[in-house]
Write a structure and sequence with these properties.
Blueprint: H1 5-18, H2 25-32, E1 36-45, E2 51-60, E3 68-74, H3 80-96, E4 102-108, H4 117-133, E5 142-146, H5 152-165, H6 191-204, H7 207-212, E6 223-227, H8 231-242, E7 246-252, E8 255-258, H9 265-275, E9 285-286, E10 300-303, E11 322-324, H10 333-342, E12 345-347, H11 349-352, H12 355-369, H13 378-395, H14 402-408, H15 414-440, H16 444-462
């Protein structure tokens, strides 16, 4: 059973939440089950002419709504259990934030740094071919996205391969997180980290909840530690810093650093680019290992790396009062109980890192509608606002400068509309699960699962059974 630890942890959390719902046990078991599991292997001819067998997976957890949706990661940790667990989390995450997708996940078991760009392209294109051959990709079937070890580049290769294999008019909708020029959407790169910021900001805005854990409301002056300065961790740290929070600690692959006075994010990123690591950054103390900074003094801890980073070994030493789970499954079941007993507010992954899939939904809509957000209404809005402002000028002594007019009359372009939609989604979803938390006297993770089960149960209860 140890081989299925992560998937079991997800199901344990589901089972705990299910006791607060009224659904039949059979429906609950159906919701939990993974619908399709694909395990593939294929040969790669490396640049030196040698042959290597590559292993990959794609799991479609739930077909209650189509298409299914979930990232593709390139990592040596990829296996069937992890992929099943992450696909299940995607189903519940989409339900929590009201994104109409079923959950899916994929991965290729490689260390990306061991392969050239041309080898990675051949791996990605062959993986896409295998998905296409087995009907595991398509704008109405299954839509991948970037994850750990992948980026817009790999998504571009996936789209190009799919387009060559199919004659689908909506081919651009087969994958999200693409380059803008290939049908991507502005705001997707920072979406997950931006969503993490919106979620933490909303939690910190609740005076009653902050009083419970001994903190003042608001982000101004709060200290935070981030584990992992990849895409998600960097953007979460960026927006928190801009809102007045102070980054005092960072954990990366080469180790961890701490400074009570604060660490400048952009200077650290420049240093990391120059040296390949964060150790030795000016004004900071290098700690014993990569996990040590997680136990340091701070108000907010943001694990933004891989799963099981907060566990029974270190949970009792963690001092943060707010845990913002930017990564998938960063806290084990045992660690969650330890942190909860200590009084920490844990903002769970199945809500907090849903910014990526939310903006992916916007990108998918853009692709199947074949029109950029804001294209038809932006200019009309600006002209309307200018007319209103001119009326204000006519009936008052107020005269607007060109700079003021530009700001006040700005219409909603793609980036502004995406950001507004993401913010609204994260705020509304947090308040929904926070209400459930208080109603049932549970933690936010359980409340998020209750929210997901309630939404999924209604659909599953009405689904037909065909022979």
């Amino acid at each position: 059973m140890s081989d299925y630890k992560f998937y079991l942890q997800v199901n344990k959390a589901f089972d705990k939440a299910a006791t607060y719902t009224q659904y039949d046990r059979g429906i609950l078991e159906q919701i939990k089950s993974c619908n399709n599991v694909l395990h593939i292997s294929f040969p790669l001819e490396k640049d030196d002419g040698s042959i290597e067998v590559i292993e990959g997976w794609r799991v479609e957890h739930s077909h209650h709504k189509m298409p299914t949706k979930g990232g593709i990661r390139y990592s040596l940790t990829v296996n069937e259990d992890e992929t099943m667990a992450l696909a299940a989390l995607m189903t519940y995450k989409c339900a929590v934030v009201d994104v109409p997708f079923g959950g899916a996940k994929g991965g290729i078991k490689i260390n990306k740094s061991n392969y050239s760009d041309s080898e990675l392209e051949r791996i990605t294109r062959r993986y896409t071919f295998e998905l296409y051959k087995k009907n595991f990709i398509g704008p109405g079937t299954d839509v991948p996205a970037p994850d750990y070890g992948t980026s817009a580049r790999e998504m571009g290769w996936i789209l190009d391969t799919y387009r060559q294999l199919s004659s689908d008019l909506n081919a651009e909708g087969c994958v999200t997180g693409k380059p803008i020029q290939m049908g991507g959407i502005r705001g997707r790169t920072e979406a997950t980290g931006r969503g993490v910021f919106f979620g933490i900001h909303e939690a910190c805005s609740n005076k009653e909840d902050m009083k419970e854990i001994g903190l003042e409301p608001g982000l101004e002056g709060k200290t935070f530690v981030v584990q992992g300065l990849g895409n998600v961790g960097y953007h979460a740290a960026k927006y928190l810093s801009e809102a007045g929070a102070i980054m005092v600690g960072v954990a990366e692959i080469d180790g961890s650093i701490y400074s009570k006075k604060g660490i400048d994010l952009e200077s650290l990123m420049s240093y990391k680019k120059e040296t390949g690591g964060i150790l030795g950054f000016k004004g900071t103390k290098s700690l014993s290992d990569t996990y040590a900074v997680l136990e340091s003094e701070c108000d907010i801890l943001i694990p933004a790396a891989l799963e099981n980073q907060l566990n029974e070994k270190n949970a009792g030493k963690i001092k943060a009062k707010i845990i913002g789970e930017a990564a998938n499954g960063p806290t084990t079941t045992e660690a969650h109980e330890i942190l909860k007993k200590r009084g920490a507010l844990i903002i769970p992954d199945n809500y907090l890192n849903a910014g990526g899939v939310t903006v992916s939904y916007f990108e998918w809509l853009k692709n199947i509608q074949h029109v950029r957000f804001g294209r038809m209404e932006k200019r009309f809005e600006e002209d309307s606002y200018k007319k209103i402002l001119s009326v204000i000028e006519a009936v008052s002594d107020r005269k607007f400068s060109e700079k003021e007019l530009k700001v006040l009359a700005q219409g909603g372009g793609e980036e502004e509309l995406v950001d507004s939609g993401l913010k609204d989604t994260m705020i509304n979803s947090y308040n929904q699960i926070n209400e459930l938390r208080k109603l049932h006297g549970v933690d936010l993770r359980t409340a998020a699962f209750i929210s997901a089960i309630n939404k999924l149960g209604i659909i599953y209860d009405q689904m037909g059974i065909f022979p």
